[in-house]
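Lab notebook, bench 4. The sequencing result for the construct came back, and we need a structural model before the next group meeting so we can plan mutations. Quick request posted to the team channel:

Model the 3D structure of this chain.
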Amino acid sequence: MIPTPAAQTATDAGAGRTPFPILVSLPEPEDTRTRVWYTVRMRVVLQRVTEASVAVDGEAVGAIGAGLVALVGIAAGDDARVVERAVAKTAALRIFRDDAGRSDRSVVDVGGSILVVSQFTLLADTRKGNRPSFSCAADPALAEPLVEQYADALRAFGVTIETGRFGADMQVSLVNDGPVTIVLDVAP
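Done. Here's the predicted structure in token form:
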């Protein structure tokens, strides 16, 4: 629908009220185009933690102390530039407390670690029906190297990185500190 303003005046003469404008949106009958309301891109959910681990088939494959858990969803169409933006934001995000108790320090500043876990379900489309669609998620052949690039680029900042196992059924355990959870939607 394209909004079409139609100014009308309403009065209630019996109550002695003054006229006021009413704005009405009317649909345009010839407008039948499908609307796309948002574009899905890489999504990273960061949780500040005191500790976290990830296991596959009962075997621990990664564990950290204080730092961040980064749940990483790669969307179809994402590339190295999008990952670089996500890395820069992750490394610089000031969500750790300084000596005054304010959130003014980054994971790099505090010497924290990051547990990186791939999670395509972050890109679920739940607008229709009750079964989520994952059609916005990247093909695993594209997503896996981009998740690895995300982890490797964070290592370049001097951050200790642990990872899950791409495509595996993983069990993630964590103690959320705060709780602090930040969602990064990374635009190209």
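Residues 43-125+132-185 form a domain with the D-tyrosyl-trna(Tyr) Deacylase; Chain: A; fold (CATH 3.50.80.10).
Will bring this to the meeting.
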